[in-house]
Amino acid sequence: MKSCHVCKAPWDGAPGTQPGRNETCPKCGMDLHVCPNCRLYDPAAHNECRSPTTEPVRDKDKRNFCDEFEFADRALGGPQSPPEDVKKKWDDLFK
Hints:
mainly alpha; 2 helices; globular
């Protein structure tokens, strides 16, 4: 399911389409064409993006002009774990 990375509200766009650059979440009002909503977003990667050809985006939570944006399907990949959750899991593992 394609959804807002902030409030997890589902995006009701037509199948096979991407949100427009100026489109916002109907529930929380956050921009949808942002890095954390993209399939290529990876906090562990260089510039936090798995694409080697994308130009760096400074503010990942603001709408951008990235041509490689692909809305992430959270049902397939799941949401990204916040760093705090990862650290807690790591600490719990080595107690």
